[in-house]
Amino acid sequence: MSLGDKLENAKDKVVGAAKDKLGELRDDKGQQAEGKAQNAKGKAGDAAEDVKDKFK
């Protein structure tokens, strides 16, 4: 896993979690959904990179 990929995935997880929480506080379902999706994207990216690393 490259450092750039790790940083991008970590950013997606952190920003996604923040958007989710902010949406919850504001009662903004759209922002919550966006945050959950971005968080999931970061987690999926980590999983994909782990699979690639195992086949190297």
UniProtKB/TrEMBL annotation:
**Residue intervals passing through the bilayer:** none
Span list, region Disordered: 1-56
Q: Bias category Basic and acidic residues: which stretches?
A: 1-31, 43-56
- Residue ranges occupied by any CsbD-like domain in the UniProt entry: 5-56
The highest taxon in the source lineage is Bacteria
Pfam families per the UniProt record, alphabetical: CsbD (PF05532)
Q: Indicate the family of this protein.
A: Belongs to the UPF0337 (CsbD) family.
The name this protein carries in UniProt is CsbD family protein
The protein's organism comes out as: Pseudoglutamicibacter cumminsii
Its organism's taxonomic lineage begins at: Bacteria, Bacillati, Actinomycetota, Actinomycetes, Micrococcales
